[in-house]
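Justification of computing resources. Each target in the renewal requires a structure prediction run like the one illustrated here; the chain below, 557 residues long, is used simply to show the kind of job we budget for.
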Amino acid sequence: MSYKSDIEIAQETVMEPISEIAKEAGVDEKYLEPYGRYKAKVDYQLLQDTKAPDGKLILVTAITPTPAGEGKTTTTVGLADGMRKLGKKVMVALREPSLGPVFGVKGGAAGGGYAQVVPMEDINLHFTGDFHAIGAANNLLAAMLDNHIYQGNALNIDPKKITWRRCVDMNDRQLRNVVDGLGGRVNGVPREDGYDITVASEIMAVLCLASDISDLKARLARIVVGYTYDEKPVTAGDLKAAGAMAALLKDALKPNLVQTLEHTPAFVHGGPFANIAHGCNSITATKMALKLGDYAITEAGFGADLGAEKFLDIKCRMAGFTPAAVVMVATVRALKLHGGVPKADLGTENLDALAKGLPNLLQHVENITKVYELPCVVAINRFPTDTEAELKLVEEECKKLGVNVALSEVWGKGGEGGKALAEEVIRLCEQPNNFHQSYELDLSIEEKIEAIVKKVYRGDGVAFTPNAKKQIAQLTALGFDKLPVCMAKTQYSFSDDPALLGAPRGFTVTVRNIKISAGAGFLVALTGDIMTMPGLPKAPAAERIDIDASGKITGLF
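Resulting structure tokens:
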């Protein structure tokens, strides 16, 4: 059997019209706003009108990512299809891909093999325009801010204390730091500026955490864009920008409905990165999935120390969610890489390296079961090179923590390959749990960060730079100290050093910058060399993407 790429598999699928998927999901056509034949937005009024009880919420997360790959989205989609094959009414809720990784190094984010959401080309490219709307709202605020200063600066804004940056949904290192307003007085006020990737914009976080248009406007108005000469925060509300920004975002706030290859209904909405933002799809989409399905399956970005921690400590806290079960995705190959095996040798059995890499998986599992006290299953995304001895070792070690292992073969078999995992997830969902967050909000900013570092990362403590200490004092004085904390940290390690694989000990995390995302409702702690604007690699994926005369796209993952 010849190998087929993800895009070839997706293009061979005969999709159902989105009206049929909406019927399957229980979405009345009065709430449906089609974007072509195979995708649609669903009006958030549905949430106000639906009195159905919530289904059970399932979170899919993973071990610390490696170049060997883990397959979180693939597992999420395959698990949903597997549950549907078992006769369950299930909904999927995923994030939208950013154009930066699509054209950069990571590729698309619609799943893989026979466990994908479609139309994958649309989802990976412009989709329904949500990210463009977010970028437009972000840059409208930037334009109004600079125009206010140019027009006389009635708010007394200090140009050297502006914290709001422009954004573009592309990996473009050239824009990280720029000087703008050049060319004489009529062309603005010269100052240092910079761009973030759109998924790092606070507008993205606001959109994903807002419950409706009124909440969206209130959050937008609270966004802090900079400080006055006498250190008072200046907000988007002060600039009278919130109404126009909300007008740009009115359609983007509505979740997007698509389907899996096996026609399971799926929401794909919002896309904050988990290493620099909170890494989860929108609360609105998750709430809709819970109302429409007996089970709602969602995922959180990167490893469980990032995406799952933020899902549980930020999103669940804000939305009042209590997950019923957590799926921890791992591969034998990735665990061997954590154990020191070079990528080229991952196909060879190596029980010693696997044993050395297993602590990474076990720490993630223990965080879920002990720190957050949630039921957990390990999903081994099976590769043909995995040996029975290797799989048995993983199973035995997980059993010591009271956690079962299920083989996931959804990449090659779709929902049929996810039935064993689905059965274990359904079983776990019936168990009571004592879910709680890893820290309380009434702790100080330093104490909350230390709780995450010590409980989740297992570090010895936190070193705050003088700059971070000054920012903490200022933010505490302004009354922002009772908000949750969003850690901006490398995805490649539990620590802030990407070279420390496995489950490192004896390290300290350095926090160099603390900023307020008042609209989103959290503080952002920047660690290590984390950047909010990625760059393209030497050979970007964009070089391999093409379109023929008939409009068929190739090379997209």
